[in-house]
Structures are given as C-alpha cells and as structure tokens.
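Before the break, one more example. Copy the sequence into your notebook; we will annotate it together after we see the structure.
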Amino acid sequence: MLKTYLYLPEELNSQIILLASAHKKSKAEMIRRALEIGVIAVARQKSSSADALLKIAEIGKKYKFHGPKDGSVKMDEYLWGKDWSKDE
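Here is what the structure looks like once it is written out:
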C-alpha cells in the first residue's frame, strides 16, 4: 500500500470523521472505500456513454437507417434548426 497526502476541505473532513465513527472504521479506510467507489463510478459512466452510442449504431445498422450525407457540415442545423455560422 502506498502512502499519499491530500488536502481536504474542513467540511469534508468532518463528514469523513462522522462516517468513520458511525461505521466503526478508520478515517483512512473510509477514504479508501470512497475513492474506490468513486473510481468505479467514473469508469462506468465513461464506458456507459460509449456503450449507448454503440447500441444506437447497432440499431441503425440492423434496420438499415441512413442519415444525411452532409451531417457533419450541417450538424447544428439538423440538431437545433439553425445554422449558427450565419448571423441573424
């Protein structure tokens, strides 16, 4: 295990101390657990976005959907109904 130093806001430190006391764990154990859960959640969040896009692509392929050929050029117009490159 590696020793790491970090700065915590006083309010967060107080919350960690209360949680550690309530769970009868050390402050260090509570911080490690919170970091572990946080890292897993962030990793899942990033992969879930990619998974959703891949599923949409699979549906499009399955049902042979075809989008506009100029989609990258006119993206704002298709999404927002407005060509943002023009002053109005």
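The helical segments are 10-23, 27-62, 75-80. Residues 27-62 form the longest helix (36 residues). Try to locate both features in your own notes.
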